Please model this.
Amino acid sequence: MEKRRYERPLIKPIKAMLPGKVGTDAYLSPVLDIDGVPIERLMREYGSPLFVFSEEKLRSNIQSAKRAFSTRYPNVQFAWSYKTNYLDGICQLFHDEGSWAEVVSGFEFDKALQNGVPGSQILFNGPSKSKADLLKAVQKGAFIHIDNLDELYLLSEVADECGERPKVALRVNLDAGLSQQWDRFGFNYENGQAWETLCKMERMGKFDLKGLHCHIGTFILTTKAYAMAAEKMARLALRVSQELNVRLEYIDLGGGFASHNTLKASYLGGPDISPSFDDYAEAITSAIYKVPMKASELPMLVLETGRALVDDAGYLLSTVLSNKRSAAGRRYTVIDAGVNLLFTSFWYDHKISPAQPYSKYFEDVTLFGPLCMNIDMIREYVCLPLLNRGDHLVIHNVGAYNVTQWMQFITLRPNVVLVDRKGSVSLLRNAETLQDVKGKEMPIK
Amino acid sequence: MKVNSDIAISQSGYVFNPQTGESFSLNPTAIEVIRMLQDGKRREEIVEEITSRYEVSQSAFLCDLDDFLDMLHQYDMLTNE
Amino acid sequence: MSEPFYTIAVTGLNAVDNPGPGVPVVRSLREAQSFGCRIVGLCYEMLEPGAYMKDLVDVCYQVPYPSAGTDVLLVRLKEIQEKERVDVIIPNFDAELFSYIKLKPDLLRMGIHLFLPSYEQFEARQKYNLADLGASCGLKVPRSFNCTSPEEFFKEKWDFPVVLKGKFYEAYVVRDKEQFSSIFSRLVSSWGLPAIVQEYVEGTEFNLIGCCDGEGRLLAAVPMRKQYITDKGKAWAGVTIKDATIVGLAEKFVAAGRWRGAFEMEIIKARNGDMYILEINPRIPAWVYLSTAAGVNIPEMMVHCSLGQSVEPCLDYKVGKMFIRYSWDMVVDQTEFAEFSVAGEKHNRE
Model:
């Protein structure tokens, strides 16, 4: 006789104030494959935990973002934000879709060059550019986004020494009506700092002023903020053209578009409240059109969105290590992926799906990672079917920032694979070995 | 170890404990295990029966059974007579 | 059975001490002169009293909380629609309106009609946008501040007391920093960011229930003076009054924004006679039955509007009608609770 599928026995108090099982039933459908490749096979072949990226999702994301903007504006350029995810395989895919590179360090700059991006398609942002970085950027013809006056004067020295005219843009910070105003990067718009610096740059006469750049914040759920920023940037560009007689090539609105993740303080879920690319595009482009510029004079619109393009293309597959109970009887489940791999679990309630069929019975669970550290918690409250040791889970929307901000801590970092459009699987990054970590250490003499 | 005789379990797995006024829901495996307890079956017999019918190893089921019995204790549903 | 006959689903059957409007909405629908109806209750919790009121509600289904996402809600509504053939849903909670507005086209394809504001209208009257809305309609709104952390607010150096409100629900008069911080964290953990601080205005509280056709035409407006207010800030008794100034506020609001659907305005008349709008709720309030008893059946109107039928304004109401809320202990067998909690549905009448 064939044995039946087992589910462990469950007794659950019916609490009048909690949603009944119907309330959460449909919340999770099991995820059995990623783009047709069975989860079970992926984990058998590449181990657990495992990061998986979907080429299909990556390409369709960038394509729909491009469509949203270029159907509304004549000249649009995306630049891939390296810090969001700088695995070469991911970067190259975005470059293949026409994205430039947006980098914030000498290391990222080199990575972009090695990925075959010409200097003239690299935007160099950030507050920490060394003299050597600046020299390289000038020689490669990259666009250098000036963050502060020290940097401006350092660049001026570099220009004198190498006898070239650096291509520059000014990083601007502004009030976009958000409760938290990012004013630590660049020069302020409202108090005139930005304008004075532009004038100063022109007076110095050593730079080719090419653009303006701003980045209003991160995970911005209101498109109005972008509309405000875009209008201010366009007005500033117009003033530069009228008063400094410089026709700017581009305005760069940075990134910050929200992904489908759910922020911890949010009542409604991310998929419901995150604006679409069309929503952002509509707000930004219609705000630019408010500023009286001739169609032929419209600057190129640069977008550096990272998270919204890559987050939902990344999955973290994980395995249940053990079940236990808290002192008060609450279900605790320990899995093999922790905050060492999933940095973003500090601010998101990541969606988690079981990777095998399940019944209609659920329980409330606190989900912990494998680290021997109290902070290693992936979800404090999550409703999951009855999991057993060895069961698999899929953690969603992990494509942004995790494979750059992950830590080699307590354990080694796992494989990262890409499922391509034909359904074949290739390694993007090999699992670390003891030698990878030890290899950098020096014996005591 | 026996289930309190007052406790009524409906076919759908709804449990009402008239002593405490609490209600609970059970999944099918839990209903089976409670029925076996009510029939006076011993722990070893329950393990034997479940593992012969379901795809689960003895050790895995024992782990779940202990946890389940603990919960029944916590919810005042067992007596030690 | 009167003709025509509609199946109408309602939420908010939580007739508890801080009641949802579902039960009085159903009571009004039962008294509708122009149609007969079968009532389907949509419940979040198994103890919502309306689910046990057999004279009012025919059948109840559990539905997922709005925080579970619209896709999940849609799946559940599809299941329910296969059994019930619902013609109209009247959602009665602020927190769920977002989902229903979003699902409106999907629901219409399933044969379910709604009469709701647009997303833009819904957003414009959010507590955190109310100050802007007031300015655009020419209505006075107490000074307010959208607060993401207590420290941020303390920097603003306002005088206490202030009113501190959750993004969707709950409001407290707060008298010092300590109280502010503790209530702030509670509100944010329930309803997310931001919490809204409003200047505390002393005066007499009035409410107005209204309905508007989406073209700027006011279909109903019944003002009420709160006579007794519970510690949760809810009216426990109130009386319909005749006050053209208050109705005038509603006219300004609907004319400027072409509101679509029912709404409630919470108004305070300061000692100097100035009228301030404290809140505009995008749905029917819990005291709606007073309006029905005063001759203006807004839920009945909503059904016609949902179905795209033309509705004549009904602006006359009986002044001096009073409601006194009371609580009542229903007694049911625990098997009813069992049925509802295990099956997720509860059949009161065939």
The CA atoms of residues 56 and 316 of chain A lie 17 Å apart. Confidence is low (pLDDT under 50) at residues 18-26 of chain A. Chain A touches chain B through 21 residues (CB under 8 Å).
